[in-house]
Specification:
Length: 457
């Protein structure tokens, strides 16, 4: 796998970072956000052995005593050190001779920068003949002689002009301290944001508001009981959605009362009322949603009593909240015609989506029933399809669409996804809601297509 060994330089502190990455430019951006100083790109070496090359450089410059103490990837390098690296990897670095001037500027060597200009001009005067290797050797000798005897602390200040004010290089202790301060500041900000989030989620009116029923985490002491209840539901109901709803709602209640009760048989009416109040005032649920939760609890307590796990049903005297009845919105054949027209123009699978519309609007099937129909359920000669074990006669307006999809050998289902597997309910809902929005009736629901009173036929 191809990667890069990169060389980044901090002109202010006189240190060079040698690291490896698949995207050195992105790495430079990350360092800019996480280090208290500016890093500048020097050059990189592209090679499939980039990890081992990085380790070789680390080992070499550590042995030469150029590593910044108490760090892993920072070194005190001179311009000569950089040139020798370029000499070892001329093709992988892909660096042109004129770019040496830029590198010498980074390392702040005025005399060496002047020498780079001379070499670049010399190469240009040779009518395209690139004597880069020879000139590179010459530059290495010049820079090595010019920088001999320099200590790590004054290497980067060589040739610095008076008007160019730069901070003095930091010691390794100061560098390590600045990095640590940055990390501590980041940690404090993270903790502050976390406390603010927790504080926002709490309610003054309800001490249990921190509990979120959407998490559906069953307390460990009741896990086995809840699993057994799930098995009972699976044997009682065919619909996966129904079973999941009962389990989720009962799990919400168990999590709510876990700190109040040790035994589920001790559940009282007050616990259920507290839960209902929490759903209404703490979480702002509608009466319809609360009614679903309470209905699930009735079923749960009924199961407990039938298995001698509870003597009295705590919901015997609790009434269901009054439901907010929703009027069925008007949906005409003209609306369906607009949906079909939009489907033909924009859908990636128009035949399937048209069939979905027809099965709901003209055949009055539910989404959960329509997606289960396979080609084995359909008799082309009689135009009869078996839905939930019952025969259903398909209308003439829908039959051509069924016949066309019947010939599609990619999937055994009439309604399928892009992998030709059964279309999920959520997938069908997404398609229909997009169509409702397109015809200017976003308040419609998929079930509105299936209601007989919704159409003007």
């Amino acid at each position: 796998m191809i990667g890069y060994v990169y060389f980044f330089f901090s002109k202010a502190y006189g240190i060079t970072k040698i690291g490896s990455s698949k995207d050195p430019e992105n790495r430079l951006v990350q360092l800019g956000a996480n280090t208290p100083w500016k890093m500048e790109f020097v050059f990189s070496i592209r090679d499939n052995r980039y990890k081992s090359i990085e380790k070789e450089f680390h080992k070499r410059f550590t042995e030469e005593g150029k590593k910044v103490p108490d760090t892993n990837e920072f070194f005190f390098l001179t311009f000569t050190d950089i040139l020798k690296v370029l000499q070892e990897y001329p093709e992988q670095s892909n660096l042109q001779s004129y770019e040496w001037v830029k590198i010498s500027s980074l390392y702040n060597h005025v005399e060496i920068k002047r020498k780079c200009y001379e070499i670049c001009n010399s190469i240009a005067d040779n009518s395209g003949t690139d004597n880069t290797t020879q000139q590179l050797n010459e530059l290495i000798e010049f820079s090595a002689e010019y920088t001999s005897g320099l200590t790590p602390t004054n290497r980067t200040t060589l040739g610095q002009t008076e008007e160019l004010e730069k901070p003095q290089p930091l010691s390794h202790v100061e560098i390590k301290q600045s990095i640590q301060e940055k990390k501590v500041l980041k940690l404090k900000r993270s903790e502050k944001a976390k406390k603010k989030s927790i504080k926002k989620s709490k309610s003054v009116s309800n001490k249990r508001i921190h509990f979120n029923p959407a998490s559906n985490e069953v307390p460990q002491k009741w896990t086995k009981l809840h699993e057994e209840y799930g098995t009972h539901l699976e044997n009682q109901y065919e619909s996966e959605k129904t079973v999941r709803g009962y389990l989720n709602n009962s799990a919400s209640f168990l999590a709510f009362i876990q700190h109040d009760l040790d035994n589920i048989s001790d559940t009282e009416e007050s616990h259920v009322l507290d839960f209902a109040e929490h759903l209404a005032n703490g979480l702002g649920y509608s009466n319809n949603t609360i009614a679903r939760h309470l209905s699930s609890l009735r079923n749960f307590f009924k199961y407990l009593r039938s298995n001698n796990l509870m003597v009295v049903n705590p919901m015997d005297d609790i009434k269901q909240p009054e439901l907010n009845r929703r009027e069925t919105p008007e949906l005409t054949e003209d609306d369906v015609a607009l949906m079909e027209e939009y489907t033909k123009k924009t859908s990636g699978c128009p035949e399937r989506d048209l069939l979905l519309i027809h099965l709901l609007f003209y055949e009055k099937l539910k989404v959960s029933d329509a997606i289960e129909i396979t080609k084995e359920h359909y008799d082309r000669n009689s135009g009869v399809v078996v839905v939930n074990g019952k025969e259903h006669s398909i209308q003439n307006i829908t039959k051509p669409l069924l016949d066309k999809e019947y010939k599609n050998a990619e999937s055994p289902y009439f309604l399928y996804n892009h992998n030709y597997k059964k279309l999920t309910e959520s997938g069908a809902y997404f398609i229909l809601k997009s169509l409702f929005k397109a015809i200017g009736k976003p308040h419609l629901r998929p079930i509105d297509l299936s209601k007989k009173q919704a159409s003007n036929m």
